[in-house]
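Bumping with the actual sequence this time:
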Amino acid sequence: MLRPHPAVLRRLVDEYEALASAAAAESAPAEHGPRARDLAYTLCVSTGTRDIGRALAVAHQWLATATAPAPAPARDTAALAT
């Protein structure tokens, strides 16, 4: 199964959880807003699940085990000066 890039997955999770927190503070279910529904759908598709709770659990697991991106190679400024 293809997995989303960790940065993309992180953005989806963060945005969904921010909407869920805001909805909880307002005592409104997060899944009722169109953006929250879109994010829930995308998270479910991205993680191969059918339930947003499971999708978030899988996403958090994948993010915890994702390898850190390799640092960009240092530029050789001496080579650029010639």
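The tokens above came from a reply further down the thread. Helices lie at 6-25, 34-47, 52-65, 77-81.
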